[in-house]
Design goal:
Rossmann fold; alpha/beta
Length: 235
């Protein structure tokens, strides 16, 4: 049997996309109707937002660790978090977790390097873009990166937190992301990281000036591969 995937979730839209991708990718790798066992736990998004608003990363980590412990109790073999922003706390959480984690930015950086990209744009919340979550992982692969301007960060953050996490998808939001991505293309970027798990709900290769690195789906597919190959290795 494949390994049991535990999802430490935060926002509903991103977590749901991750879950659906795991199930779809499972069919491709494991056969008709098949996918690894999956369990998910999430605190109220409001609990996380209260911590984010006061930059309380210890509080974020405590919430993540509670979810991790509950998932370990019900048999998960490893963990993923379909939320880029929460990865700011993962360096403190992972050593205290009884289960291993897949790191979303590491998965994305690996994919970018395999595709031969050298310079990336990064989109995400203001908390993510002020962190080292992606810069560290990209630098380890020898990749360059740029982020949106301060004003663009604030508007992107507003769209994410006031619209996308509620499942509200507006044409104006798509147009705004397209303008930002176009500016990144002008600055020499070869692809753009959709570094918020809700952004892929409105942006994709078909409406982006740059190829997209969909962090949500890349993490989900990496988790399925880990589940399938991990089971084979332990057999």
């Amino acid at each position: 049997m494949p390994l049991h995937i535990g999802i430490v979730a935060c926002s509903a839209e991103g977590a749901a996309l991750c879950y659906r991708t795991i199930c779809g990718e499972g069919t491709r790798l494991l056969g008709p109707h098949a996918h690894p066992e999956v369990s998910m736990h999430t605190h109220s998004l409001a609990d996380y937002v209260r911590c984010l608003d006061r930059e309380d990363w210890q509080g974020v980590g405590a919430l993540m660790l509670t979810s991790a412990n509950k998932l370990a109790t019900i048999g998960a073999d490893f963990l993923i978090c379909p939320d880029n922003t929460l990865h700011r706390a993962l360096a403190d959480v992972a050593p205290r977790s009884t289960l291993p984690w897949l790191h979303i930015a590491e998965v994305v950086a690996t994919e970018a390097a395999e595709r031969g990209y050298r310079r990336l744009g990064i989109l995400g919340t203001r908390w993510l873009l002020s962190s080292e979550v992606y810069p560290q992982k990209l630098a380890a692969r020898g990749l360059e990166w740029i982020a949106p301007s301060p004003a663009e960060r604030e508007e992107i953050n507003r769209i994410i937190m006031d619209e996308l996490v509620y499942g509200v998808f507006k044409a104006q939001a798509i147009h705004y992301f397209q303008r930002v991505i176009g500016g990144m293309q002008d600055q020499g970027c070869e692809a753009v990281v959709l570094g918020c798990t809700e952004i892929p709900l409105i942006m994709e290769d078909g409406n982006s000036a740059l190829p997209t690195l969909d962090s949500t789906r890349l993490l989900a597919r990496a988790a399925v591969r880990r589940a399938a190959h991990g089971a084979a290795a332990s057999a």
